[in-house]
Amino acid sequence: NIRARLTHHDGTNYVLYRVAKSREDAERIADKIYNLEIDEKGFRKLTRSLYPYVADVYGWKVRGRRPA
């Protein structure tokens, strides 16, 4: 998982970056987050990891994937 800790003048936000299957799915998930209808487990279930895409950019190894 790709995570961030964002600190500013009135607090700290913890962010988990993930990818939705489509724009419509992303909007439905955002509505669930806004309405407190989803937790992190549900969020992870409805999305996929951003890690493989970031790993390709930086040349990191990805478990379970063979080098090209």
Overview of this protein structure:
The two termini are 22 Å apart. A three-stranded antiparallel beta sheet has the order 1-2-3. It is 40% helix and 26% strand. The chain contains three helices and three strands. The chain has helices at residues 23-34, 40-46, 51-58; strands at 2-8, 11-19, 48-49. With 68 residues, the protein is of the alpha+beta class. The protein has one domain (2-58).
Short description:
The protein has 68 residues and is α+β, with helices and mostly antiparallel strands. The protein is 40% helix and 26% strand. A hairpin with a 2-residue loop joins β1 and β2.
Give the tags.
68 residues, alpha+beta, 3-stranded antiparallel beta sheet
Overall number of strands = 3
Main sheet record: 3 strands, antiparallel
Instruction: Note the run of SSEs as H and E.
Output: EEHHEH
Mean pLDDT, to the nearest integer, reads 91
Distance between the termini: 22 Å
Using the CA coordinates, give the radius of gyration: 14 Å
- Number of helical runs? 3
User: Could you name the ranges where pLDDT drops below 50 across 5 or more consecutive residues?
Assistant: none
Overall geometry? globular
In what order do the strands lie side by side in the largest sheet? 1-2-3
Beta strand %: 25-35%
Helix content: 25-40%
Q: How many separate domains make up the residues? A: 1
Structural class: alpha+beta
